[in-house]
Amino acid sequence: MTDLDAAATLWDPDPGYLNTSSFGLPPRPAWDALQQALSDWRTGRTSWEGWATAVDEARTLFAGLVGATTATVATGASVSQLLAPIGAAIADRATVLVPDIEFTSNVFPWAVHADRGVTVRTAPVDRFVEAVTADVDVVAWSAVQSATGEVADTAAISAAARAVGAVTVVDATQAAGWLPVHAGAVDVLVVTAYKWLCSPRGTGFLVLDPDLPARHPAVAKRLKPLAANWFAGESVHDSYYGLPLRLAGDARRFDISPAWHCWVGTAPALRVLTDVGVAAIGAHNVGLANEFLAAMDQPPSNSAIVSVPADDAAIQRLQAAGVQFGVRTGRVRVAFHLYSTAADVELAVRALRG
Description:
Elements: H1 4-8, H2 28-43, H3 49-66, E1 73-76, H4 79-89, E2 95-99, H5 108-111, E3 119-123, E4 138-142, H6 154-163, E5 167-171, E6 188-192, E7 204-208, H7 212-215, H8 217-222, H9 260-276, H10 278-295, E8 305-309, H11 312-320, E9 326-328, E10 331-335, H12 342-353
Parallel strand pairs: 2-3, 2-4, 4-5, 5-6
Antiparallel strand pairs: 1-7, 6-7, 8-10, 9-10
């Protein structure tokens, strides 16, 4: 394991970068690997096969982060793309329950099936468990809400959903990398890597629980790799041309053809995070978030993403101070990761307080 303080020296953030909930910053090993790959691409001094090996390394590292087996992990590019086959597999006239502030990448893949009677129902985050009723077929939520940073009680939601026989789907994009996430708690887990996993935008993971076919046989029967392609073949390099269909027997059949350079940057980033450990990263992140909240006279949180009210003048002061942040639901949103420091907290608080 790598000490968190030592690992933090692998990053080069400008002071005041508090916007990991929008995009994470790359550690130097990831940046250097990407630059080397781009240089090799520019000059044509290599072939693509070496870049593609980063996909399987990243798959294995991600599986370790979420307690999954490599065979259950598919790779892709975005949450909506990874969820598309799941949305297509749910039954006609199914009812899908989502939080009322859920990011649309975990809403639209269900809503596009309205033409076959699929209904998307919403419920407030603080009453979400109570909204899981017997007529719900799919329960889909974020482990951590993008807008507010609220951490979901995934265990309680999953238990309620399984009690009524609903498929459980979690988007862990705002959680994986700082909050312990256990793939076995749900039927489907999806993550994009460009936020807390500190990777280039364009890489993501889908985990299909091995018990999905037993728990939801009708869904499993309809579940198809709608983007079936050569990279999803049982033997990738023997799948370039023609019939017969010969897809991988495990979750790899849902892989899409990879954006090579994105994956070259993803594997080293995951290696660094794995070496530090999610528990240590999470303790650091939440500790800084609570320092910030205390300085702003706000109650403590259990999240690395927090928000506070701010008027236009305060927002302008933040911008003038060079703080990078987001504005969501009319509040200033800040996010703390392992490269964040107490100095970043002080900079943001001083600007907000004027």
